[in-house]
Design goal:
By secondary structure, the chain is of the alpha+beta class. The protein has 2 domains: about 1-55, no CATH class; about 55-110, no CATH class. It is about 25% helix and about 25% strand. It contains 3 helices and 4 strands. The chain has helices at about 5-10, 10-20, 40-50, and strands spanning about 60-65, 70-80, 85-90, 105-110. Strand 2 (about 70-80) and strand 3 form a beta hairpin. This is Membrane metallo-endopeptidase-like 1.
Length: about 110
Amino acid sequence: MNESLIEQRDSQPLLKLIESIGDWPVASDAWNATTEEAWSLEDTLAKLTARFHKKVLLDMYVWTDDRDSRRHIIYVRSQRTKNSHNVLIQSDFPPCGSQLTPIHYTEHVHF
């Protein structure tokens, strides 16, 4: 590993990456002066996922609930740790066009 080159380049590679995906307001000196209203975490994560073919911050997917196969749950897993993940549970998915019921948050830990 060329540590002197890393030191020389400093944060430039990261700043170029941020610029290429549109912006990252928390990395900006002028948080409120940026396009805060137009910026979307969902869009930014989609761009990063498409570019690097990896889930960047969160891995999310809908799957059948292991405890009740008639229900579906939304798994939300941090990329930081693969041993535990959070689960958002939707009571029952209603028919299209109807009002969604509240989502309850639980956490499952797998060993």
